[in-house]
Amino acid sequence: xxxxxxxxxxxxxxxxxxxxxxxxxxxxxxxxxxxxxxxxxxxxxxxxxxxxxxxxxxxxxxxxxxxxxxxxxxxxxxxxxxxxxxxxxxxxxxxxxxxxxxxxxxxxxxxxxxxxxxxxxxxxxxxxxxxxxxxxxxxxxxxxxxxxxx
Length: 150
Known about the structure:
Elements: E1 3-9, H1 14-27, E2 32-35, H2 39-51, E3 61-62, E4 73-76, E5 87-90, E6 104-110, H3 114-129, E7 133-139, E8 145-148
Parallel strand pairs: 1-6, 1-7, 2-4, 2-5, 3-4, 5-6
Antiparallel strand pairs: 7-8
């Protein structure tokens, strides 16, 4: 059964939180597809992943760079999984149909944006109604993630 984890960004913006989550994903031996709403967003996130830290490297590629099947982290706007990833990271409120192909899906949303929060609540309800296991994670005061009961 696919688990959909909702990550409520309250402290750090996506550009800070995403690389940290991707480090954990890779560190646990997983591969991930990062699904964004636009090509411009993919380009922006690609840039962030190249430059977010001098001390770390996140091997990744985007849909227009080629060799997608070799990328442990793959940024795209399409419902595709060329590298057989088992984790799907969704940003920008995307809600793809192919979630069941993954072991786990992470839905990252900006909790400081009322519209993003409203749409995340709707996705939560739909995921529950569709029979997915859903979990809720929020950023703690120290910046880490805390699983919360709703």
